[in-house]
Amino acid sequence: MFLFLTYIRLTMASGPTVLMRLVASAYSVAQKAGAIVRRVIAEGDLGVVEKTCATDLQTKADRLAQMSICSSLARKFPKLTIIGEEDLPSEEVDQELIEDGQWEEILRQPCPSQYSAIKEEDLVVWVDPLDGTKEYTEGLLDNVTVLIGIAYEGKAIAGVINQPYYNYQNNGKRTLREHGSEAKAGPDAQLGRTIWGVLGLGAFGFQLKEAPAGKHIITTTRSHSNKLVTDCVTAMNPDDVLRVGGAGNKIIQLIEGKASAYIFASPGCKKWDTCAPEVILHAVGGKLTDVHGNTLQYNKEVKHMNSAGVLAALRNHDYYARRVPESVKKALVP
Ligand code: AMP
Ligand code: MG
Ligand code: MG
User: Fold this and answer.
1) Alpha-carbon span 59 to 61, nearest angstrom
2) CB under 8 Å to 41, separation ≥6 — which residues?
């Protein structure tokens, strides 16, 4: 009891830890990025650029959101390593893009003791400013997320997912112009949400739900499919297959009971796609690995590509891992 009270007193005296301050900032910064993602659509000029191919796109929203996230975090935490998806020229960022806030509710949460002594320079932040860009350009707005993942000693330990168009009512609109000026939530609902989590503390901002027991509902890529991807999905003996955009979006499907496993047997997905979603899934007892069942590493020197694909489930990860065909494993070298 005495030790516990001393611990509480010490924690309160020194204020929130670096990790909790960073998560509180990442929450506010991800909200700002989500607002930027919505604003670009409303303004109507997406400024689409092809990166490696026609399904690998970058828009003005990807660029502005990354500038906002990386500059805001770097100003407050100058010793962090921040790795963002987009390759952007280093230039002075408009003050209007800077978010200085820290989500108060997170600052009040206790830091798991194993992370209380972490220093700023020990943390690596993986940023996907807009996950699901292909779908964003096609008006599938609820597929889009903003991902900020935090890693320590190579392990994903904290993360924030903002879903800018959560509660968004499609109402059958298909064109971006139709979406733009009227992108709003349904009655009594707020547009957009932010999910956050820290290993050892939990994940918040959503209602945890398991997929129907005994059913294998597989969620996979919509715009980056190939034979390996479909072979692997078929080998799972699925009751249903959902093809949606975004790694963040697919992990949200797992934690909200819409899918039982996320399977992507192909390279293409990167560390910034998986870092934050992995934390949210792990914080509620799920598991994300490559198709071999290996855990992913997030230290700053690691290669960005998840070359051996992604296999994630809230429950029964082993069931899915056992069914990955040898031919798929052979083709996907970690
Ligand atoms: P998807 O499930 O297709 O939405 O992909 C999840 C994430 O991985 C997104 O950020 C995609 O951009 C990325 N990704 C997957 N496959 C590829 C690929 N072949 N080329 C570029 N990015 C990819
Ligand atoms: Mg992405
Ligand atoms: Mg992206």
Assistant:
1) 5
2) 61, 136, 141, 176, 179, 180, 183
317 membership: H or E segment, kind and range: helix 317-322
Of 64, 69, 188, give the one whose Cα is nearest residue 136. Answer: 64
H or E stretch at 148: strand 145-152
Q: Which atom of ligand 1 is nearest to the CA of 270?
A: 8
Cβ-based burial of 170 (10 A; exposed 0-12, middle 13-18, buried ≥19): middle
| Residue 309 Cβ contacting ligand 1 at under 6 Å | no
Of 66, 176, 175, nearest to 129 by C-alpha is 66
Find residue 218's DSSP bridge partners: 241, 261
How is residue 92 written in tokens? 């002075």
Tokens 């071999």, residue? 292
Query: 134 - beta bridge partners?
Result: none
pTM of the entire structure? 0.94
Residues pairing with 53 in the sheet = 56
Secondary structure percentages of the chain, helix, strand, coil, to 5 = 40, 20, 40
Q: Whose CA is nearest to atom 16 of ligand 1?
A: 268
Closest-CA residue, ligand 1 atom 2, reads 221
Distance CA 136, CA 243 (A): 15
CA dist 82 to 163, 187, 193, 212, Å? 21, 38, 23, 38
Return averaged pLDDT per consecutive 10 residues of the chain, 334 residues in all: 51 82 98 98 94 94 98 98 95 94 98 98 98 96 98 98 89 54 67 97 98 97 97 98 98 98 98 98 98 98 98 98 98 94
Residue 246 CB less than 6 A away from ligand 1: yes
| 82, 68 contact by CB (below 8 A) | no
Decide: 317 and 292 in contact? Cβ < 8 Å: no
Our answer to whether residue 59 is catalytic in this structure is no
